[in-house]
Design brief:
The complex is a heterodimer of chains A (177) and B (349).
Chain A lengths: L1 H22 L3 H21 L3 H23 L4 H4 L7 H6 L1 H21 L6 H7 L1 H9 L4 H28 L1 H4 L1
Chain B lengths: L1 H39 L15 H10 L11 H17 L10 E3 L2 E3 L9 H10 L1 H11 L3 H32 L4 H10 L9 H14 L11 H4 L9 H27 L6 E3 L3 E3 L9 H21 L7 H31 L1
Antiparallel strand pairs in B: 1-2, 3-4
Helix pairs in contact in B: 1-2, 1-10, 2-10, 3-5, 3-10, 5-6, 6-8, 6-12, 8-10, 8-12, 10-11
The chains are: A mainly alpha (177), B mainly alpha (349).
């Protein structure tokens, strides 16, 4: 009962923050709403007993990823940040079908996921060997191939970032000499 | 039902004790720092207010609280004040996962001197620790002034770089301990008869570098850089609001990260450890208080070490700082993980 109440608090917090993300115009406030919603989602994970996922949510999303938005946005001049005129209106309309498609995909994945993972499948294992250990053993046995493919995708992304970074440094190389 | 209330009561008592220790100690560490700095530079330091300046922190606090609260005219007042909250809260929350001593029994209840022994404690420490970057970025942006903005950008860059290095550095001890719970890490070191610093010296060095960088201590205090940036992101803050940032960064964060270093590398509350010999306890006469004395002693030693560096070394340039992080510390930490994985089976036995 207490757990359900806490879950409700965190979900309401997450939803209100998400609404804040799309309604506010000042980019700094948007980042703060995003941060607040990410922390609320971490809270939901903690309530559900998924301590590892909750901690990773905090460490990776709330800190490592959102920090880069802050890093970029603090470089936005003050006058631009508080400007009110709507930009990217055409782009917004054009991207609407794609957004709908994404939502459809999310709904399908969610429904498939509900069918695929019956509740409480890992509960005994978690009680026996602990949260992080269960995630590790499932990740490195059953989903090993998918895990490696994902790390390959990340590696490609990293190489891409290094290449883009290098190109720029070559352009400005002569300035110093 | 009764046990729930007892648990709640124990939790509240623990919170009050921890907050009291953390904030009280935080304020008095300013006096310690001024005294140590003074003696390093061969002057007496604060001597006037109280015996050897012992009442100086109270006088400073009164002065800071009664000062006029200035605010930059075109700043953003909400974010300006929010930055203070976001600096203080995550830093003090880290105390929740620091184990101060072994389990003991009071009135038949077993009490662990740690607020929450979650089994992802270490991850929480670094998650909360790097939330500090938001406070700094907000403080810089909301002040609407050039110096704070540059200072906060520098600090954000440093934290992002060293967060990577520190996370990989703690992997070594974590592999050896085989758990993420801070309490269990100490327990495993006692069972394995080994402080992890003896097998993880590289990780310890990387950790200490990152500690200095994240807390903005010399030689990494480039975001303050009095000579070029006045005091970085705190320029537009006045009175106690100004006092809060150094209090959080220089004292509370240094304390928490030192305590985590003690937990990870120096065996927490365990007595002196000699490789191949085991634990030797010169403080045995303290009886059940000896673990707490050891924990306090180790954290104090690390804190004094950091003060010693702070008042001795010159400052790095910003490009040198990021270069150290990415080109030296990160590869060292990665190499350490590989070597640790190779030697870990020998230590587990």
């Amino acid at each position: 009962m207490v757990r359900f109440l806490i879950f409700l608090v965190f979900s309401a917090w997450a939803i209100i923050s998400a609404i804040g993300v799309v309604t506010f115009t000042n980019p700094i406030y948007v980042i703060l709403w995003l941060l607040s919603s990410l922390i609320a989602v971490a809270g939901i994970f903690f309530v559900a007993g998924a301590e590892l996922v909750g901690a990773l949510q905090l460490l990776i999303y709330a800190v490592a990823i959102a920090v880069f938005y802050v890093f970029v946005l603090t470089a936005v001049p003050w006058e631009k940040a508080v400007r009110k005129d709507p930009h990217y209106r055409t782009e917004g309309v054009l991207s609407l079908p794609l957004v709908l498609l994404l939502y459809l995909e999310m709904a399908v994945v969610f429904l498939l996921g509900v069918v695929a993972s019956p509740e409480g499948k890992f509960r005994e294992a978690i009680a026996k060997i602990g949260n992080a250990e269960v995630v590790g053993s499932v990740l490195f046995t059953k989903y090993f191939f998918a895990f490696e493919v994902v790390s390959l995708v990340l590696l490609i992304g990293m190489i891409g970032a290094v290449l883009i970074g290098r190109k720029e440094s070559q352009t400005y190389e002569d300035d110093t000499g | 039902m009764e046990s729930v209330w007892v648990d709640l009561l124990v939790a509240v008592i623990k919170i009050l004790v921890i907050l009291g220790i953390a904030l009280g100690l935080g304020a008095y560490l300013t006096w310690v720092e001024r005294k140590v700095a003074a003696h390093i530079q061969r002057r007496p330091g604060p001597m006037v207010v109280g015996w050897h300046g012992l009442l100086q922190p109270i006088a400073d606090g009164l002065k800071l609280i009664t000062k006029e609260d200035l605010f930059p005219r075109y700043g953003n007042r909400f974010l300006y004040n929010l930055a203070l909250v976001m600096a203080l809260v995550p830093a003090t929350l880290v105390f929740a996962v620091i184990p101060f001593g072994p389990e003991f029994e009071v009135f038949g209840y077993r009490v662990k001197p740690i607020l929450t022994d979650v089994n992802v404690g270490i991850l929480l420490v670094f998650g909360l620790g790097s939330l500090a970057v938001y406070a700094i970025a907000l403080a810089g942006w909301a002040s609407n002034s050039k110096y704070p903005l540059i200072g906060s950008m520098r600090k954000a860059g440093i934290i992002i770089s060293y967060e990577v290095a520190i996370t990989f550095a703690v992997m070594g001890p974590l592999i050896l301990a085989g758990t993420l719970s801070t309490y269990q890490i100490v327990q495993n070191q006692i069972e394995q008869n080994l402080w992890y610093i003896w097998v993880q010296p590289v990780a310890f060095v990387v950790y200490m570098f990152s500690l200095l960088a994240e807390t903005g201590r010399v030689p990494f205090d480039i975001q303050e850089a009095e000579a070029e940036l006045v005091t970085g992101f705190t320029v537009e803050y006045g009175g106690m609001k100004f006092g809060l940032f150094p209090l959080v960064e220089w004292y509370i964060e240094v304390l928490t990260l030192s305590a985590i270093a003690v937990v990870l590398f120096l065996g927490g509350w365990s007595p002196l450890n000699i490789p191949f010999v085991g634990f030797v306890d010169p403080l045995f006469f303290l009886g059940p208080l000896s673990p707490y004395a050891w924990f306090l002693l180790k954290v104090t030693a690390l804190f004094l070490f950091i003060l010693w560096l702070h008042w001795t070394l010159p400052r790095y340039r910003i490009d040198q700082i990021t270069e150290i992080a990415w080109k030296i510390m990160l590869p060292l930490a990665l190499l350490n993980i590989v070597i640790t994985s190779l030697i870990a089976p020998f230590i587990w036995d």
